[in-house]
């Protein structure tokens, strides 16, 4: 294939380097592609659930503001857990068992504590942000009940999946950096949306939301006391201390992403099939950034890439891998989203429009994912911070907002939305 504007020798050089890249990254591409396809299928099921939740979203105004943040929290907390376990596997520190005082056990405790803390924080954030922008909302106690109960139920499942992926990575020789982020984010979507939806049916039950709110706050206080008293649990304390602030900031970004979608709800109600795209599109964009973040983090810890502003050649290869993975992934999201929506009777703007939408928005989102993943990893490492704790939360939450904006802008540019 001729490349206009390039001489024959330049074309040969580009072709040779591209083929060399594909050869070197073949295993990473296969592992990443397999994980992303599993992720996309799970996310598609979650999108289908969201497409059928239009009645619930209309009945409980403002709930959609919480949805991306609640889903993103699972990806942020357990994606970061997967990234830390991946680094531990690379450095030979992963012991293969979960005990209170070993690395895996303390990481699990940290993930549980962070789930409780951030679930409460997200409820307050969703309520306040919606109020500031004049969006009609459900009461604060309803937000807390949905966020905490839905969060804890889904987190139990996703924790098991994360630990299972770690064990399988050790057993089968997989690179966990390639598979953890896509699988965990897909599980987060697939489990969290149904959990949130089920909890909404408990809201009218007497004083249940108020009781859950009080117990949640007391549980957070008890967890804080436990963390302060047990100074010997160094990993547990360090992970919570190093992750909590960035997770809450990530939650703010996720809530704004939810608000962005909530304010265009009329466009999504006109074509409910577009709602089906939201989970797979946002989570695949986040998963692509998560793969890059995890790979860069491991290489920074191993000293094989320098933490510099201009990517090294090894970093460029990882970046190129993300773009190569993105093309089939976003094609699959557009095609499968259209077919599934048609099969269940949800209206869409048509196959060509859906494909154009996911590819255009996907190109924007992938570029954003690469930028955020690379510079978050470099800056955190240069500041003496652990990029495993910062990379995944920053990338996935940023991609919720960037992805939502990319989708809406692409809908407007393509004439799908007014």
Describe this structure as you would to a colleague.
- 82% of the residues lie in helices and 0% in strands.
- The chain starts with 7 loop residues before the first helix and ends in a 5-residue tail after the last helix.
- It has 418 residues and is an all-alpha fold.
- It folds into 2 domains: 56-255, no CATH class; 264-418, Tetracycline Repressor, domain 2, CATH 1.10.357.
Helix-strand layout with pairing:
Blueprint: H1 8-24, H2 26-51, H3 54-59, H4 63-91, H5 103-132, H6 140-172, H7 176-200, H8 208-229, H9 234-262, H10 265-270, H11 273-302, H12 313-344, H13 351-382, H14 387-413
Which structural traits does this protein have?
single chain; 418 residues; mainly alpha; Tetracycline Repressor, domain 2; 2 domains; 14 helices; globular
Q: Average the pLDDT over all residues and give the rounded result.
A: 82
- Tell me the fraction of residues in β-strands, as a range: under 5%
H and E order? HHHHHHHHHHHHHH
* Percentage of residues in helical conformation: over 70%
- By secondary-structure content and strand pairing, the structural class works out as mainly alpha
Low-pLDDT stretches: none
Radius of gyration, whole Å: 21 Å
According to DSSP, the number of beta strands is 0
Question: What count of structural domains?
Answer: 2
Q: How widely separated are the two ends?
A: 39 Å
The largest sheet, given as strand count, sense and whether it forms a barrel, is: none
In one word, what is the shape? globular
Please give the count of helices. 14
